[in-house]
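Obj.: predict assembly geometry.
Materials: sequence records (below).
Method: joint structure prediction, all chains together.
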Amino acid sequence: MVPEARPPRMGEYPDGTVLTSTRGDAAIDRATHAARRLIDALLRADRDGTDLSGVAERLESVVDDLDAQAPAVQDRLVDMWSGEGITRHDPVTGPENAIAPPLTLSGRADGSVDGEVTMTIPYQGPPTCVHGGVSALLLDHTLGVANSWAGRDGMTAQLTLQYHRPTPLFRALTVSARQERTEGRKIWTVGEIRDDEGQLCVSAEGLFIDKKVPRPR
Amino acid sequence: MVPEARPPRMGEYPDGTVLTSTRGDAAIDRATHAARRLIDALLRADRDGTDLSGVAERLESVVDDLDAQAPAVQDRLVDMWSGEGITRHDPVTGPENAIAPPLTLSGRADGSVDGEVTMTIPYQGPPTCVHGGVSALLLDHTLGVANSWAGRDGMTAQLTLQYHRPTPLFRALTVSARQERTEGRKIWTVGEIRDDEGQLCVSAEGLFIDKKVPRPR
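Observations (raw C-alpha cells):
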C-alpha cells in the first residue's frame, strides 16, 4: 500500500488526526493480527497438554508457503519505502508488523501527540510489568511521530529515559510526546508513559538530528 | 521449565558462560521459532500473489487451538516466574518469546557480557537500519544481564542512549555491557552496540536500583 503523499502536520490538520497506520480489512493486516495473537498465545499456552509439536508444524507450513512466493528482500525493501508518509511496517505502530502492540497515535492542536495502548505478556520485563527497553521503544517512536506532527523530524541522536515507577501490563497506558524546540538541525522532544490512573511511569527526553538515511532503490 | 537455582556469576563460572536461555528441541521452542520466522515472512511476503486470507485463517485456527487449552493468565504468570534464575520468556533473549531476535549473551572473565545478533526487517526503523528504540531494548536488557553476571542487579532507573551512526540490519552486531560501580542500592552500568566492522553504533549508560517487583503467586 502506498503511503500518503506527506505525513499530516499540526496547523494543517485538525486536533485528533490519526498519525499512524491503522489496521484495515486487507488480508495482510488480518494475517499480521493473527500472528500478533499467536505470539501472545504461545507465551500463555499450556506447556504440557497442548500439541505444540503439531503447532510448530502448522506454522512451519505457513512460513514455507509465504517464503515460496516472497520477492527478493531488496525488492521488498524498495516497495516498503516507496511513496512518502506513514509507514505500515514499523515495530511500534505498524499494522503489518506482528511485533508492534500496535500503538495508534493522534495529533493534538497544541502540538502534542498521544495514544492509548495495553501491553501484554510478550512485552514483559519485571513480573507483570512492561520491560524497560520496551518502554524506551514506545517512547523513541512516539517522540519521532511528535516531530513529524510538528513538521520537523530526523534521526535519534540521544535519548534519556527516567523510570519513575513500574509500568503495568494489562492496563491502558497513555503514551504522549511533544516537540519542545529546534535549533539549526537539532530537535529536542519530550514524552512520557502514564498508567490508567494518570501516574507517571516513564519520561523521555530526546535529541534528534534533521537528517535521513537514504531509501532503498 | 524451571530455571536454574541462581543465575551464574563472574568468578564462580568460567569465561564464556552462556547467561541467557538457549533454544532447545522442546516443542514450545520449535513453535516459537516458527512464529519468529512467521513475523519476518509476513513483512517480506508478496502482497498480491499470495493467499494471505488463507494464511490469516490458518493462523487464527492455530491460535484458537492454543487458547482452548490455555491456563488462566494469572496461573501462567505464576508458573512463568517460578524458580530462580534465567527466564525463557523475555522479549530480548527468550526462546519462548517470538518477539525476541533472540540475543544470546555470554559472561566474560573480565566482568563484561556480550553476544552477537543479526537484526532483520521486523526490527527496522530508518530504511535498512535497526529502530533506535529496538537498540534501546537490546541495550537495556544487556545491561541488566551484565548486572546479574556481576552479582548485583535491579530495576532500570535511568537509561541514556547515544546514537553514533545508523545500526545496520542484516549484519552481525555485537552487543556488550559491563557493570561499572555500585554505591548503596545504586548500580551504574554501560554498554554498546557495534557493527561487523567494529564501528560503534549505539552506546548506553544505565542507573539501576537494587530492588525487585514481587513475583506473582
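Conclusions so far: The longest helix of chain B spans residues 132-150.
To do: check interface contacts against the pulldown list.
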